[in-house]
Design a protein that fits this description.
mainly alpha
Length: 445
């Protein structure tokens, strides 16, 4: 049996900058393809079925997000413990953590999906559907609830594979998932004409293929992701839940963001406002996944170095990540200011009201990316070292607390423009709070 002691871990020996790039590039490529896949779904639904169908799928989207949140809650928490155990040279503990995490994720998401399916009709209306959008939202939601456990298992396995020093395979699985989903959705929507329910099935099938790709990792000689004899260890599970809670909250925050914006825009601008937000949300999903890719790159590194007490490498990693996030945020901001009109036109030939709402929304909303990257990196850093309170504060404040306060007040003054500015202001306030905290408690002491 091969153990960690029988090979040299490059995380211990190679330059930090080289290691960061090794993890960052596959994460960004994989996330970019997933983002393009996400946008392709919107483009095909919008062009084939129209703005009402696009709004319906957008309304059902938070359910997908909640399932991803469940997988990240246990997945990121478990993977953080896994990397810390590997950094401390304890592979047996790491393998048990992997086994327990995967079993809990599968069981929890299966049970939650079935319970939610029983109450699916009131759930759809609670998410912001009206008589126009209900048929589309309901059709998409039914599939997601019954088979959502497939992509939760895929997502969690991908996190562990990345933490077991194989970011390239994790990227490859994302590529297969994304490309397959685009091909299947084209066939389903344009050839077979199966509507949004068919598109949801395409997403599930693609995720299943991604699991097959990730399975190749288990044939590696230095693989440490081994399923071992399982007996629930509550202390480790509680620790994983605590560490993963900020990631869960981040995904729940995306659902809160989507539902609150849908409901507010439905009140202010009707279905046109919801359709405009659906376009912005698809574009935002691309940028969000890019920042998530940065977090995915540093989490295994920070967790490993923290477990091995390598303070020097932790410091170098966080500095490189913050510089990268700042550059990316500026680029994303400029894309929104210069390309808002062409971006909206990609999603379909909408009427002038929807087009103007979406174009203005993109230009105002994209101010958030000047601050969002640093907030993502800092949340991941604190989560990876076990400072759950600060990681939770960053997530809760930016995606729930500040956003909801601003969203419930500013639109009364600025109208729809106040909706678009809620996130940029929230991100700025959170970054200010992080700067204040770091001045009192330096990152690496």
């Amino acid at each position: 049996m091969i153990t960690q002691d029988t090979f040299t871990n490059p995380l211990d020996t190679q330059p930090v900058g080289k290691i960061f790039v090794k993890y960052l590039v596959p994460s960004l490529i994989g996330m970019l393809l997933m983002a393009l896949n996400f946008v392709a779904d919107g483009i095909m639904v919008g062009n084939r079925l129209g703005p009402v169908a696009l709004a319906g799928v957008g309304i059902a989207g938070p359910v997908y997000t909640v399932f991803v949140a469940m997988s990240l809650w246990i997945g990121i928490g478990g993977a953080t413990l896994f990397s810390q155990a590997m950094g401390a040279k304890d592979p047996k503990k790491a393998q048990f953590i992997f086994t327990q995490s995967l079993i809990v994720i599968f069981s929890a998401t299966l049970v939650i999906g079935i319970i939610a399916f029983i109450f699916r009709e009131p759930l759809v209306y609670a998410l912001g559907a009206n008589e126009e959008t209900y048929p589309y939202a309901s059709a998409y939601l039914n599939v997601m609830l019954l088979f959502g456990f497939v992509f939760t298992v895929e997502n969690a396995t991908s996190v562990f594979v990345r933490n077991d020093r194989n970011p390239t395979l994790a990227m490859s699985a994302l590529i297969v998932t994304a490309v397959t989903n685009v091909i299947l959705n084209y066939i389903i929507l344009y050839v077979l004409n199966l509507g949004v329910a068919g598109a949801a099935y395409g997403t599930i099938i693609s995720a299943a293929l991604g699991i097959c790709v990730l399975g190749l990792h288990f044939f590696r000689k230095d693989n440490q992701l081994k399923l071992v004899k399982f007996r629930l260890q509550r202390p480790l599970l509680v620790q994983a839940i605590m560490l993963g809670f900020p990631s869960f909250l981040a995904e729940v925050g995306i659902s809160v963001f989507t539902v609150s914006h849908n409901v507010t825009l439905e009140r202010l601008a009707g279905t046109d406002g919801v359709a405009a937000f659906s376009v912005l949300n698809y574009v935002h999903g691309v940028m969000l996944l890019m920042f998530l890719g940065m977090g995915s790159a540093i989490q295994p590194l920070i967790s490993y170095y923290h477990g091995g007490r390598r303070q020097d490498r932790k410091r170098q990693t966080i500095k490189i990540a913050l510089r990268t996030a700042a550059i990316a945020g500026l680029v994303f901001f400029l894309i929104g200011q210069l390309g808002a009109g062409p971006i909206v036109s990609i999603f379909g030939d909408f009427d002038e009201t929807v087009t103007n709402l979406a174009t203005t929304g993109i230009r105002l909303f994209f101010f958030a990316y000047l601050f969002m990257g640093a907030n993502f990196v800092m949340m991941t850093y604190y989560q990876s070292i076990g400072n759950v309170k600060m990681a939770t504060w960053i997530t809760f404040a930016r995606e729930i607390l500040f956003m909801l306060i601003i969203l419930s007040t500013l639109p009364y003054v600025l109208g729809v423009q106040g909706v678009w500015l809620a996130i940029p202001i929230a991100e700025l306030l959170v970054l200010a709070s992080i700067i204040f905290y770091v001045r009192r408690y330096p990152l690496v002491r």
